[in-house]
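Pipeline run #58 for the internal structure catalog. This entry was flagged by the ingest filter as a single-chain record with no existing model, so it goes straight to prediction. Upstream metadata was stripped on purpose; only the residue string is passed forward. Reviewer on rotation: M.T. Logging verbosity set to normal.
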Amino acid sequence: MHMHDAGLWAARYQTVRAASLSLAEPLSDEDCSAQSMPDASPIKWHLAHTTWFFETFILERMERGFKPFHVAFRVLFNSYYNGVGEKHPRPQRGLLTRPSMAEVRAYRANVDERMAVLISAGISPELANLITLGLQHEQQHQELMLTDVKHLLAQNPLMPAYHAASAPDAEPAGPLAWIGFDAGLADIGYGGDGFCFDNELPRHRAYVAPFELSSRLVTNGEFLAFVEAGGYRDPAVWLAEGWDWINAQRLSAPIYWQLRDGRWHEFTLHGLAPLDLRAPAAHLSMFEADAYARWAGARLPTEAEWEVASADERLRQLFGHCWQWTSSSYAPYPGYRPVEGALGEYNGKFMVNQYVLRGSSQATPSGHSRASYRNFFPATARWQFTGIRLAR
């Protein structure tokens, strides 16, 4: 192997690892150790778990004379890999006041040093694949760091900002246009020669009936019309399970919306701000997205429709704004086979009771988006940057 290969890999590794620490930079140690709900994890846990991934799946396999940085971390920072042994219960991650944030930073530095030694010795195809997966995994957690800390700060009556600067104004939405697509057989799934997750494979043919997609995402202003028209009180537009859920949770607006002095505001990473009517409506569950679509005389797209349409230049806000709910259940593609061993637990075992989202959001790291990417969450999830693209 050429040394310049190793240099390239070392730089790639350092860039992604540094990005995680910079996301934690505006936060105090107290901010980093709290957990606001079982679905969200403390920032400290994210920083340790992404490090655990490299230690467990790369160093333990490939490092000469491997010794774990701390033997207990193997259990504390395992997320869901049952094949790797015991794990700490997910809802109790916020109780891990120890190790301290300083120790977690030391853990990162230690694993990064050992990874640097391993990389400098040369890059085998197996090592290249494992580093790539580890970095893609860390980028997924970088998005979760932002969504989890937003949920945490929203629990605070002081409405603290993650970013001191105010949010940039949204671009004018412009009129919503319908873009039509013909029926036909389409190739679905990843077809390139770079990285993809196993759930994007195998590439296969799917039949798509004629359909139309909205040229842009639904805005806050449009969703506000649904709220003010009594959409949250109209059982006719809700799926039965969604209706039960909004009533049990007493929901009457999106998660980060607040009515103050008769005016709608939204909690953002920049603190509480007047609701920006032009910005894409975000943090909506699949149930809310589906109800809005039905109220608007439309529906949610299937994931095949979204992927077929994504090549069209006329569609705006496909990437970098909000993940877009589809009506497709998260299921394996025809002929799907998970990877052997513990890494096979990465995607396959979550293929139940979840819906597919397409695109990417404002919290997704750059370079982490592609048309075949399949994100997935339960129908009630609201803490991600999830929005609505209509279909009909």
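catalog note: Residues 157 and 272 are 10 Å apart (CA to CA).
catalog note: The first strand starts at residue 178 and ends at 181.
status: ready for reviewer M.T.
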